[in-house]
What does this fold into?
Amino acid sequence: MSTAGLYDLPAPAKLNLFLHVVGRRADGFHLLQSVFVLIDWADRLHVERRADGRLQRRDLGPALPAEDLSLKAARLLQAESGTSLGADISVDKQVPWAAGLGGGSSDAATTLLALNRLWGLHWPRERLLPLAARLGADVPFFVGGRNAFVEGIGERLTPIEVPRQWFAVVKPAAGLATAEIFTHPRLARDTPAVILSGFLADAAKPGFWGAVWGRNDLQLAAEDRCPEVAQAAEWLQRHFGNSRMTGSGSAVFARNGMDDQPDVNWATWPAEDPLPPGWVGRMCRSLDRHPLVDWAD
It folds into this structure.
């Protein structure tokens, strides 16, 4: 049935180091500014080519929605390319969903990159990016494959160099839907926009990336909807002296130093103040680029 396959493909998560809501379009979409950074917490996908045109997904971990973003990405690329080929997609889900970590969007991007190769399309990145934007606001970032200053509704990407860092990431048991946050009355929508050239100049100064810059404008609304977000932020603040929500989900992160920090075993640390039941945590290292970035060059 399958004539070729690509296995153990990473779909890395991301963090929003800050997230500012700087306005709103006439169609209701919010205008954002953020820095997206890839981290080494990743789903794993196995993609096998089918000759009969069928598209199927198999869950190797927690059950995903029937039409998750990886399957939607496959359907869209199949339709746009006109190929007669199909695929079996197996997803080993490791990144929590409803967390603001971009796991589903990353699965979609890895699927696009894999099928672009498996189906022999060999489309350049510039041809894949419009499809990525149709799948979701975060998908273009993962197809772009590099840490980026992000603007608009997520479609305007300026690649930037971010020094390697360690982040403690905690996801409470509860999740958050994006729509709940962007319709919340406490959401600030008028943060002054950052001038990119000024941001890049500041980012080049010593010590910039070791500090906590900006804020997540969605956090107050998220904490109102989900008190566990505030609890997770307080937990990280106690241990690392800083914390911030990422994206529009319930995950919270804290900077834990630059590249020379050791890994931490969450199962045994900190024994005196463990994560509450149902929470998950991981010490994550930032990535310089997506592991599959060269697949669309």
Summary: The chain is about 25% helix and 30% strand. Residues 236 and 243 are 6 Å apart (CA to CA).
